[in-house]
Design a protein that fits this description.
Elements (H helix, E strand, L loop, with lengths): L1 E8 L13 H15 L3 E7 L1 H10 L4 E3 L10 E6 L4 E10 L18 E9 L5 E8 L5 H19 L4 E6 L18 H8 L3 E2 H4 L31 E6 L5 E8 L15 E7 L1
Parallel strand pairs: 1-2, 7-8
Antiparallel strand pairs: 1-12, 2-4, 3-4, 5-6, 6-7, 8-10, 9-10, 11-12
Length: about 280
């Protein structure tokens, strides 16, 4: 059976500098976008109380795990799933730090960061998977590097023989491999995860990278200009790690739905259709 995964940095509800794209103005469009693509499994980043209040009222077809508090206790890297598609077997959360079991920060991170995980059983096939969702630091590359290493260690410990899905806002660029003689536009942390066996569903689906495959746009939409010029800014990813049962990527895309000047978020959500082989 095919199931759909979404990763979506929704932009917290409490930011006072979003103007016309404040949460009160864009909440309906945000929910409409999620419902239109009807993912079975979602990794949300920056979910705050105001966002959750709307989702609890409007996304009643989902169950969820909030996850640990991050970013001064206001945001959660949450996982939502459709109980018609998945049964929850086990779940947990940890902080991205040297002491992941306590509220803490390390490696010069600008904010406290966290990750949430869920072990799920697909109802149709009876097969299990591990989903991990996170939001890495936007300032410290050291924190992103150590965060990726911690995520990998935790996934290896938790997944057993199941395949794993890793979603999140990684705050560093993904990009396809360059041709001979060309500069590599991808961040070293992205390359590290691929070297460890992760598959980028966006590329596995046959997509190509360019300056227009950005997932962050800062509420500017098509007018967004990456800095430095030529950057890809595809910083939101859905990665898979195969286990005893292989996960096949059928399709993947960046969702650019909007009603200018309103946008669902300052990031575009991404979706991937997957199936157990």
């Amino acid at each position: 059976m095919t199931f759909r995964v979404m990763s979506f940095n929704i932009r917290g509800a409490s930011d006072e500098h979003d103007g016309v794209n404040g949460w009160a103005q864009r909440a309906a469009l945000n929910v409409e976008t999620i419902k239109r693509y009807a993912p079975d499994l979602i990794g949300f980043q920056e979910l705050q109380t105001g966002n959750l209040e709307v989702y609890e009222a409007e996304l009643t077809e989902y169950q969820y795990i909030l996850g640990n508090e991050a970013s001064s206790g206001t945001e959660h890297p949450s996982i939502f799933w459709k109980p018609t598609t998945f049964d929850l077997l086990e779940a947990g959360s940890f902080w991205i730090s040297e002491t992941p079991d306590v509220y803490s920060e390390s490696w010069d991170t600008d904010c406290v960061r966290a990750a949430t995980w869920a072990r799920l059983r697909e109802k149709a096939s009876g097969k299990t998977l591990l989903h991990m969702n996170t939001h890495l630091d936007h300032i410290s590359n050291w924190a992103r590097t150590e965060g990726c290493r911690l995520l990998l260690r935790q996934i290896k410990t938790l997944r057993a023989d199941s395949p794993a899905i890793l979603t999140g806002d990684f705050n560093c660029n993904a990009c396809e491999l360059p041709l001979a003689g060309e500069a590599d536009l991808a961040d070293a942390n992205y390359r590290y995860l691929l070297e460890q066996g992760f598959v980028d569903t966006y590329l596995a689906a046959g997509n190509r990278d360019s300056v227009t495959t950005n997932t962050f746009h800062g509420f500017a939409g098509d007018a967004f200009v990456p800095i430095p010029a030529g950057s890809v800014v595809r910083i939101d990813w859905i990665l898979t790690l195969d286990g005893a049962e292989r996960l096949r990527t059928l399709s993947s895309r960046i969702i650019r739905d909007h009603a200018a000047p309103l946008y669902p978020s300052d990031h575009y959500p991404i979706v991937a259709d997957l199936e157990f082989a």
